[in-house]
Amino acid sequence: MTANTQSHSGSGPDIITFGETMALLMPSGGKGLEYSSELHSLFGGAESNVAIGISRLGGKVGWFGRLGKDPLGRMIFKKIRGEGVDVSRAELTAEAPTGLMMREVLMGKTSVYYYRKNSAASLMSAKHLDEAYIAGAKILHITGITPALSESCKEAAFEAIRMARKHGVKVSFDPNLRLKLWSMEDARPVLLELAKLSDIFLPGLDELKLLYQTEDWDVIVSKLRELSAISIVKGGENETYVVTSDSVTAVPYFKAEHVVDTVGAGDGFCAGFLVGLLKEYEYAEAVRIGNLVGSLIVQTEGDWEGAPTWEQVDAVLNDVKHIER
């Protein structure tokens, strides 16, 4: 089965995504937040992480969202734009501040603290969508984080999908379950409905166990086959799974030589996989690209900083030796 996407004319992005991007503060030197006097100023958000990953791999991609008209919002806007992502539909607003998250890694465990309630992004609604912009893309990529932010954000997510489907744009959906943002009971019906409306469903295995309330792999596969989407299941023990109506294909991981920061691995996977689809690779081969990008991103601190270029990916795939000097 070939993962062809409908071709569109025009010079806009091939892939469009939207959602909240926040400033990120992390302690230096592996200390806890409580005891650190120095913090690194970074930024992150699932959708912008994916967009930057796609851009680094040579894909034409657009990201939009709402940021506060404040120093953090301006920093994020300029840095995403500087990564070659189209931000022409992003907005800086004086209505509310840019969201903030803080993260620490202690004894190998990552903890994230959010300061995003009533942020600029949470005020996004369907009126902020540009239908012509979405219509010009090949793929709309959304995550389950956006509908968790507010009722108006949830409406925007569903309306964006409606617009995409109306114009023959493929919908890619990563549930990105965040139980710090909403309860499982609130999340389950929304995420399952979004999965039903998608062409490509990108869940983690742990998320599926919670969504379908079962540990049984065979039951999970049968549930996935009730969807019209192709399902790409991340987070297997040693592989990612491609689940179609009549087959399950396991695609092995790439071993990461040195794991530094696991946050962003799933977003990196999505970026690599979606670029693989743009290049009209078979699903399993696109997943292989995603697995590789995910393994490279975890070897650098930050959500997206370790995202590779296509040349770097190609070098690993073709076992090109690095010449140091």
Description:
The chain contains eleven helices and 14 strands. It has helices at 46-56, 71-82, 131-135, 146-149, 151-166, 184-196, 205-212, 217-224, 265-278, 283-297, 310-317, and strands spanning 15-18, 22-27, 39-44, 61-64, 66-68, 91-93, 100-106, 109-115, 139-143, 170-174, 200-201, 230-233, 239-243, 248-252. Residues 1-9 have low confidence and may be disordered. The longest helix is centred in the middle third of the chain and has 16 residues, at 151-166. This is Sugar kinase. It holds the Pfam family PfkB. InterPro entries: Carb_kinase_PfkB-like (IPR052700), Carboh/pur_kinase_PfkB_CS (IPR002173), PfkB_dom (IPR011611), Ribokinase-like (IPR029056). Keywords: Kinase, Transferase.
Strand content: 15-25%
What does the overall shape look like? Answer: globular
Q: First CA to last CA: what distance? A: 43 Å
Tell me the number of helical segments per DSSP (H or I, 4 or more residues long).
11
Helix content: 25-40%
Strand order of the largest sheet: 4-1-9-10-11-12-13-14
Q: Please tell me the overall pLDDT.
A: 91
Order of helices and strands: EEEHEEHEEEHEHHEHEHHEEEHHH
The number of distinct β-strands equals 14
Structural class, from helix and strand content?
alpha/beta
- What are the low-pLDDT stretches, counting only 5+ consecutive residues below 50? 1-9
How big is the Rg? 19 Å
Largest sheet: 8 strands, mixed
Give the gist of this structure.
This is Sugar kinase. With 325 residues, the chain is of the alpha/beta class.
Helix-strand blueprint:
Elements: E1 15-18, E2 22-27, E3 39-44, H1 46-56, E4 61-64, E5 66-68, H2 71-82, E6 91-93, E7 100-106, E8 109-115, H3 131-135, E9 139-143, H4 146-149, H5 151-166, E10 170-174, H6 184-196, E11 200-201, H7 205-212, H8 217-224, E12 230-233, E13 239-243, E14 248-252, H9 265-278, H10 283-297, H11 310-317
Parallel strand pairs: 1-4, 1-9, 2-7, 5-6, 9-10, 10-11, 11-12
Antiparallel strand pairs: 2-3, 7-8, 12-13, 13-14
